[in-house]
Design goal:
The protein has 5 helices and 2 strands, in the order ααββααα. By secondary structure, the chain is mainly alpha-helical. Strand 1 and strand 2 form a beta hairpin.
Length: about 160
Amino acid sequence: MSGALEAVLRRDRAVVIAALAIITALAWTDLIWLTNDMWMGGMDMTGFRMIPSGRGLMMPVSAPWQPIEFGYVFIMWVAMMIGMMTPSVAPMILIYARVGRQAAITGQPFAASAWFAAGYLLSWTAFSLAATSAQLNRERAGRTRTSNQTIISRQL
């Protein structure tokens, strides 16, 4: 290994913080991009729903969800979970990295911090799948109404 790479790896706390910050920033960048894409400048959207695709796609409320729409909504949920949850679990991941560093000094086997963080990402992805499915089922059952969405958006 080169000396520069070894020096960086010795600073694993900085590497973990940088990786978590990059992941969080990418998730928020995606969400802000979707928000800007879905803004319609006061246009009356009654009877339509926006698809969070980054392409300005709209569907009539009465039309059933398409597989591509499920995929876009799922990706939106994953990005939202990562963007909001990563900062709250960062201290735990840093503690895990510290324990791992101490275990490496004593020669005890210990899983890498990346595997620990991947467990969080996997659980957030599973929740995102459940949330997307629940959203789909609410719309199929007619529990989401365009008039309610209009009233909620006016209150914001």
